[in-house]
């Protein structure tokens, strides 16, 4: 990652970045007053440049100006829009991409609202500069160091630490999700969690393998993973700080590759199914982030991991699955597998862990994108306050979600003549019905549960704001922001 340092004045002024903002609906952009104002000559030159370059100050607008023989030798003007955290995040990402051939840059921050600006800027720089490649071919960005000029570096150090940890965990979630499934199977994923959790105080890890899953009755995880040569796992990662008064369980879908099973997917729908464990990646890294930040809330993450493959031992359409705790479900579509592993983990959480709050994240349905497009997750809950708090945190973190209805009249779709529930009805409202199925496993936590279907925003097809092509790490930032409010 980029090295970001807080300074009180430009120590290496070769490349200076000054923020600009819109000045009225029709006028040119204006310089933003900064904690350490530039020299008069630089300021005069920048002010003259704004109308000449037709700069608007919109968030993410970037312009380089060369000053041969001057100090600084290169002046960058960076649009920060309204100057809120979101626009600074967009600006930071745009700058990281535009200045990739620089080795070092210095950015001057405004004196007021510096903490909000710093958090957005740092996250934008670190997430916008992310890249995942398995080849050494092609050039790599040269930008390695960023100095941020602020009025009081010591006072803002905690803000930078929070932003850095948040970005680091989001990048780790992206790495896990981007990793090809030729490498990433349930055993590999569990090993990555073990490595990341190693040596962290008050962080406890248990990994169940196939034999333990069978002995304890995790029938959904075993059914979905039964067709693969790589056996399933259940990762249980527990952050237990002293004095925590609230216990949250996070559950994340961890299908390390999804062929659809016997109900096999068409090729176009299968080619990106390495991302079908993005929910597990998000909740695991959010828990690691909570530990790194020392958040005073207990967080237990459950990541049910399986490969949904085609073989003689794969579960069949029409099979009956006995879930943890005894409920049974009839599955007539083996491509509706995520809810089966989630149901096991949720039932275990309710019965054995007895948390205060239960939240699950899953790349669960294509219907999420049909309803809300590529950038919004679908959020379901019967608790208005809990839903509002989590949505507020998601929005503040720069992610997007929309609350959807848990329509009780669709519960009849879940009726089965031979099992307690039908897990894969094909009567429409796919994302809603999947949420209603999961609700059946929440027990007395039904009114303290949130389900997030984040299939669509887990992957980006283009460069947008702090997102790059590929895995987005969606959910990590929102969860960390929300968990920080529970202490």
Highlighted features:
14 helices, seven-stranded mixed sheet, 487 residues, nine-stranded mixed sheet
Describe the secondary-structure layout.
Elements lengths: L2 E5 L7 E7 L8 E2 L8 H13 L9 E5 L7 E6 L5 H14 L5 E5 L5 H15 L16 E5 L3 H26 L7 H12 L5 E6 L1 H7 L2 H7 L7 E7 L7 E6 L1 E5 L8 H4 L7 H16 L4 E11 L10 E4 L5 E4 L6 H16 L3 E6 L4 H6 L4 E5 L2 H13 L4 E3 L17 E2 L7 H10 L9 E5 L5 E2 L9 E2 L4 H8 L4
Parallel strand pairs: 1-7, 2-5, 2-6, 6-7, 10-12, 10-15, 11-12, 14-18, 15-19, 16-17
Antiparallel strand pairs: 2-3, 4-5, 8-9, 9-12, 13-14, 16-19, 20-21
Helix pairs in contact: 2-3, 3-4, 4-9, 7-10, 9-14, 12-14
Describe this structure in words.
It is a single chain. The protein is α/β, with parallel strands linked by helices. The chain is built from 14 helices and 21 strands. It has helices at 40-52, 85-98, 114-128, 153-178, 186-197, 210-216, 219-225, 267-270, 278-293, 338-353, 367-372, 384-396, 430-439, 476-483; strands spanning 3-7, 15-21, 30-31, 62-66, 74-79, 104-108, 145-149, 203-208, 233-239, 247-252, 254-258, 298-308, 319-322, 328-331, 357-362, 377-381, 401-403, 421-422, 449-453, 459-460, 470-471. Strands 8, 9, 10, 11, 12, 15, 16, 17 and 19 form a nine-stranded mixed β-sheet that branches. Strands 1, 2, 3, 4, 5, 6 and 7 form a seven-stranded mixed β-sheet that branches. Helix 3 links the parallel strand 6 (104-108) and strand 7 (145-149). The longest helix has 26 residues, at 153-178.
């Amino acid at each position: 990652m980029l090295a970001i340092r807080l300074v009180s004045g430009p120590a290496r002024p070769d490349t200076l970045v000054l923020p600009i903002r819109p000045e009225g609906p029709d006028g040119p952009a204006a310089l933003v007053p900064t904690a350490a104002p530039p020299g008069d000559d630089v300021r005069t030159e920048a002010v003259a440049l704004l109308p000449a370059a037709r700069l608007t100050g919109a968030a993410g607008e970037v312009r380089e100006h060369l000053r041969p023989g001057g100090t600084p030798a290169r002046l960058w003007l960076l649009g920060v829009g309204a100057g809120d955290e979101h626009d600074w995040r967009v600006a930071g990402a745009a700058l990281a991409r535009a200045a990739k051939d620089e080795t070092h840059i210095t950015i001057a921050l405004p004196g007021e609202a510096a903490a909000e600006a710093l958090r957005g800027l740092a996250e934008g720089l670190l997430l916008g500069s992310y890249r995942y490649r398995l080849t050494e071919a092609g050039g790599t960005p040269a930008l390695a160091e960023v100095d941020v000029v602020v009025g009081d570096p010591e006072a803002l150090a905690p803000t930078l630490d929070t932003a850095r940890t948040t970005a680091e965990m989001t990048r780790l979630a992206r790495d896990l999700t981007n990793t090809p499934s030729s490498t990433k199977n349930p055993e590999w994923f569990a090993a990555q969690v073990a490595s990341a959790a190693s040596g962290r105080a008050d962080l406890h890890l248990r990994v169940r393998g196939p034999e333990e899953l069978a002995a304890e009755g995790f029938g959904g995880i075993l059914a979905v993973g039964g067709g693969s040569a790589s056996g399933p796992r259940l990762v249980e990662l527990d952050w237990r700080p002293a004095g925590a008064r609230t216990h949250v369980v996070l559950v994340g879908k961890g299908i390390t590759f999804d062929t659809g099973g016997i109900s096999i997917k068409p090729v176009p729908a299968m080619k990106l199914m390495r991302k079908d464990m993005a929910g597990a990646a998000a909740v695991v890294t959010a828990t690691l982030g909570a530990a790194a930040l020392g958040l005073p809330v207990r967080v237990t993450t459950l990541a049910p991991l399986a490969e949904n493959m085609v073989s003689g031992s794969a579960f069949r359409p029409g099979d009956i699955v006995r879930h943890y705790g005894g409920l049974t479900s009839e599955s007539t579509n083996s491509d509706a597998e995520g809810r089966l592993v989630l149901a096991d983990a949720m039932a275990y959480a309710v019965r054995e862990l007895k948390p205060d709050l239960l939240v699950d994240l899953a790349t669960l349905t294509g219907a999420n994108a049909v309803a809300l497009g590529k950038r919004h997750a679908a959020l379901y809950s019967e608790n208005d306050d809990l839903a509002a708090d989590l949505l507020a945190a998601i929005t503040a973190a720069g992610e997007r979600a929309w609350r959807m209805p848990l329509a009780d009249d669709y519960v009849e779709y879940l009726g089965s003549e031979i099992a307690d529930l039908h897990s894969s009805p094909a009567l429409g409202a796919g994302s809603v019905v999947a949420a209603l199925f999961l609700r059946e496993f929440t027990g007395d936590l039904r009114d303290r549960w949130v389900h997030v279907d984040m299939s669509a925003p887990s992957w980006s097809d283009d460069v947008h704001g702090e997102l790059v092509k590929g895995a987005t790490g969606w959910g990590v930032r929102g969860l960390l922001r929300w968990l920080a409010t529970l202490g």
